[in-house]
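Technical annex, item 7. During the second reporting period the consortium partners agreed on a shared format for inverse folding records so that results from different sites could be compared directly. Each record opens with the tokenized structure and is followed by the designed sequence. A conforming record, contributed by the partner at site C, is shown below for reference.
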């Protein structure tokens, strides 16, 4: 019996304590213009106080069972809110608070929420909601503005039409201008004497009266500090009116923009240095192009003479040379042809360029271009070097000379590296973001391990030693494709032929 009595007394004490807590909460709710709210760990509202219902002016049935994010109309933030709840439950943050603007058809409120983790065996998250009044917002706003202004290295003040009629100045005025506000009000010439002479007119215009005084003014000026250095200041002055459109005062903000000017000066110096280097590079590139053109032209002439005289010697004087002599002659002719190919390749490469090109405004018919420029040279009816099959190809925006250079390089390789009569097929296919051309032949093929190797500068396969090559042609093709943002690659089977793919992106998709 004694034990039962003790338990009963304990429950009564708890009920009394609970009632006392509720009484205190109600008094606080009325005083702070708020109410009490409870959530579960999923953020669902499980209970609210009568003060809460009075504040939001909604029945309990429309609130309970909703998530808090849904109640305040911010469902997109639900995941973020639940993460913050998890942080609080894990002890990473002592409490969770935030403010928001909440409205219905009949109510518009600025609300402040604060939640605390559950105690003991309780699983619910208790919280408090408060209506933020204009006084609260004003106090918060002023504190926030002061903090922002201090962080930006700025000064804010309000004054009348006469700048000396100062109503409010932020505490940083003295450190910002290195002078007392009283001295500035008594003798404005002290302030003006520190302004750079070239900027004095700007400052005077900022404060000069106008008929309406309704303009937001902005200006930049230099201000001399005690150590003799110049501080760059960006200044704003804006009129402030009451509800009857009567001018009350001016609000002014001064921001230290010296770091910005230093960065701008540094960038200008860097741009000047970059322009100088670019100018030097352009001169160097021009000299290289001229030298390349000169070297290719002047080396070609003696090589042609060397080849002609070698052939004359072979035909007129060396008919009875032995097998070893014929091998020597063949080596000489092969070396000459390789040198000629190398000179032609360098000449072509020098005119390609290094930067992506602006696309030509008009599309060109690739089918007509091939029939007009490629077929007559490589597949004429009377003495063809190869057979070329061309379907109706998709038009492209590309320089004719670039596409011709690609096709000639691929054709030359197909004709050179084959054991059969060359048979070339050129096709195209349009995709959503690109047009892909294929160039197929029936040549000797390329080993899979050399698919990337052949597109490098100066690299060539030794598949047919009797055939010379510069190692520049496919590198030039890759370079041209890169100018248009495209790609080139190859799929090949040794002994059956190769297919080169040319991908041209659609720049207007």
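Designed sequence (site C submission):
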């Amino acid at each position: 019996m004694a034990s039962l009595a003790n338990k009963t007394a304990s429950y009564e004490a708890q009920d009394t304590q609970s009632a006392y807590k509720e009484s205190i909460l109600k008094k606080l709710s009325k005083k702070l213009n708020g109410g009490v709210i409870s959530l579960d760990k999923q953020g669902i509202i499980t209970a609210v106080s009568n003060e809460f219902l009075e504040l939001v002016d909604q029945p309990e049935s429309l609130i309970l069972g909703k998530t808090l994010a849904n109640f305040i109309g911010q469902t997109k933030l639900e995941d973020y809110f639940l993460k913050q709840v998890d942080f609080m439950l894990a002890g990473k943050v002592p409490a969770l608070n935030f403010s928001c603007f909440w409205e219905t058809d009949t109510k518009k409120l600025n609300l402040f929420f604060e939640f605390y983790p559950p105690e003991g065996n309780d699983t619910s998250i208790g919280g408090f909601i408060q209506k933020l009044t204009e006084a609260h917002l004003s106090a918060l706003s002023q504190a926030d503005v002061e903090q922002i202004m201090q962080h930006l290295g700025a000064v804010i003040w309000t004054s009348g039409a006469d700048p000396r009629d100062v109503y409010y100045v932020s505490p940083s005025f003295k450190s910002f201008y290195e002078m007392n506000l009283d001295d500035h009000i008594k003798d404005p010439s002290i302030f003006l004497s520190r302004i750079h002479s070239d900027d004095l007119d700007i400052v005077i215009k900022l404060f000069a009266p106008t008929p309406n005084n309704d303009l937001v003014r902005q200006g930049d000026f230099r201000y001399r500090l005690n150590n003799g250095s110049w501080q760059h200041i960006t200044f704003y002055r804006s009129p402030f009116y009451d509800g009857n459109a009567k001018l009350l005062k001016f609000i002014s903000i001064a921001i230290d923009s010296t770091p910005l000017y230093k960065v701008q000066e540094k960038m200008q110096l860097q741009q000047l240095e970059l322009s100088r280097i670019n100018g030097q590079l352009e001169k160097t590139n021009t000299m290289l192009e001229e030298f390349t053109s000169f070297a290719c032209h002047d080396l070609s002439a003696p090589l042609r003479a060397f080849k002609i005289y070698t052939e004359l010697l072979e035909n007129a004087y060396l008919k009875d040379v032995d097998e070893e002599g014929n091998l020597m002659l063949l080596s000489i002719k092969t070396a000459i042809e390789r040198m000629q190919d190398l000179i032609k390749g360098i000449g072509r490469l020098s005119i390609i360029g290094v930067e992506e090109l602006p696309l030509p405004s008009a599309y060109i018919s690739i089918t007509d271009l091939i029939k007009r420029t490629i077929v007559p040279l490589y597949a004429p009816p009377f003495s063809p070097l190869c057979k070329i099959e061309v379907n109706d190809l998709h038009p492209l925006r590309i320089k004719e000379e670039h596409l011709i250079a690609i096709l000639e390089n691929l054709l030359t390789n197909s004709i050179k590296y084959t054991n059969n009569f060359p048979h070339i097929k050129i096709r195209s296919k349009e995709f959503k973001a690109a047009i892909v051309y294929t160039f197929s032949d029936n040549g000797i093929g390329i080993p899979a391990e050399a698919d990337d190797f052949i597109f490098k500068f100066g690299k060539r396969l030794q598949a047919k030693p009797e055939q010379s090559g510069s190692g520049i042609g496919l590198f030039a093709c890759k370079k041209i494709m890169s100018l248009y943002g495209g790609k080139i690659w190859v799929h090949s089977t040794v002994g059956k032929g190769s297919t080169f793919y040319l991908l041209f992106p659609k720049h207007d998709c």
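The radius of gyration is 42 Å. Residues 1-17, 134-140 have pLDDT under 50 and may be disordered. All partners now use this format for quarterly exchanges.
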